[in-house]
Amino acid sequence: MKVQLLLWLTVLIVLASCTGNKQSNDGTKLLDYKYFTIRVPKSWKRVNARGIDSFVGELHIDTGTVISFDLGWYSNDLAEGSEDYIIRSDSLIVLKKSPIPNATKPIEYYKGKPDSSIIAALTINRKQWITVDGYKAKLITPTHIGKGTTGIYIDSLWNAGNSNDRFQINGHNLNAKQQQQLIAAIKTLKFYQHPSK
Question: Which residues on adjacent β-strands are paired with residue 129?
C-alpha cells in the first residue's frame, strides 16, 4: 500500500512538473555559447561561423535575415559611418558623393555650425546606453524601422592579455517584429567566463 501511494505521488509530481513547463513555454529557447547564453525565439536557427581572432556566430531569422555576433578584441563598435558628414571642432561639413567618376574627394554641399536637426536628419541609427548583465552597453536602433542597425556593443567584458574583449550582436534592416525580438533577446544575455579559460 505504501509503495503504491509513493508511486502515485511520484506520477503526480512528474505530471505537475510537465504541465508547469508547458505553461512557462514562451516560444523561446536558450542558446548556450559557452562564454554566454541568450534566449531567442524558437524559430531562429543557430549557425556556426569561423573567426580568425575572435569567437563569432550567426542566428538566421529567415532565409535572408541574419543576426551576427562577435566576441573578441576587434568587435565592431557599431559606430555609424561618417562618409556623409564630418564634424570638425565648430563646423559641420555635409558631403555628397562626387558624380565625377574616379574623383578623389566628395563635393561639399553644406558647411556651417553643427546643428542637431541637421545631424539627426543625416543619421540612420539612434544610440542609447543600457545595462546588460551588469555591463554598460551601447544599444543601436534604426531611426526608421526597416532601415539601419539593431544591436548592442559592449566595450569591455574581460581583460584579455594586452586588451579587453569586446562584444557586439546586431542585425540589419529588421522589420518591427524582428527588432523587438532581438532587443528582447539582448536583454537575456548572460556572460560567464573569459574565452581563454
Answer: 138
- What are the mean pLDDT values of the chain's consecutive 10-residue runs (197 residues total)? 52 43 67 95 92 89 91 86 58 57 57 64 83 95 91 88 87 95 97 69
How far apart are alpha carbons 197 and 195 in whole angstroms? 6
Q: Contact 188/170 with Cβ under 8 angstroms?
A: no
- Exposure string of 135-159, with b = 16+ CB inside 10 Å and e = fewer, is eebbbbbbeebeebbbbbbbeebbe
**What does the block give as the cell for 52?**
580568425
CB of 74 within 8 A of CB of 53? yes
Nearest to 192 by CA among 54, 61, 23, 71: 71
User: All domains of the chain, ordered by start, with CATH?
Assistant: 26-79+124-191 (3.40.1000.10), 85-121 (no CATH)
* Measured distance CA(122)–CA(15) in Å, rounded: 58
Residue listed under C-alpha cell 555635409: 94
Q: How many CB atoms lie within 10 A of CB 126?
A: 13
| Chain centroid to CA 165 | 16
CA–CA gap between residue 197 and residue 190 (Å, rounded): 17
pTM over 0.85: no
